[in-house]
Amino acid sequence: MAIGIDVPTPPEPDNPEDYDYEKCPFYGQLSVRGQTREGTVVSTDMAKTVIVEREYDVFVPKYDRYMKRRSRIPAHVPGVLDSLEVGDEVKIAETRPLSKTKSHVVVEILGDQ
User: Fold this and answer.
1) What pTM does this model have?
2) What pLDDT sits at residue 25?
3) Which terminus of the chain has a lower count of CB atoms within 10 Å, N or C?
4) Euclidean distance between CA atoms 86 and 96, whole angstroms
5) Contact, 41 vs 54, CB < 8 A?
6) Which residues contact 19 (CB under 8 A, 6 or more apart)?
7) Ordered DSSP codes for 89-113
8) Is-contact 44 86, C-beta < 8 A?
């Protein structure tokens, strides 16, 4: 619980000289605040970034039914959690803007799908 969320702390980085401490919530100065969300990794094409997709239901009063919606959130991957693949379930937390599109960081790998 070093970052304010009940998640396990990953092991320290292998090479501390080359590690990006500025964008790491565990061993750096990056604070997490706001919402935490869970989703599935759908893309790992970018460097140090994954696209997390979450699906949810929205009630439509006109038809008295639910419809499915999905949102895709770009999230930063700290160097200590580099082993992400497409299909992994992850927990992401909101943080300060890290780039034009990234305002979330991966804080836990929940499992494979």
Assistant:
1) 0.84
2) 85
3) N
4) 25
5) no
6) 13, 27, 79
7) EEEEEEES--SSS--EEEEEEEE--
8) yes
Q: Which DSSP state fits 17?
A: T
Which one-letter DSSP state was computed for residue 15?
-
Contact indicator for 25, 31 with CB cutoff of 8 Å? yes
CA distance 58 to 37: 17
Separation CA 61–CA 70 (nearest Å) = 19
Q: Which residues contact 63 (CB under 8 A, 6 or more apart)?
A: none
Comparing CA positions, the residue from 87, 90, 84 lying closest to residue 109 is: 90
How buried is 108 (Cβ within 10 angstroms: 0-12 exposed, 13-18 middle, 19+ buried)? middle
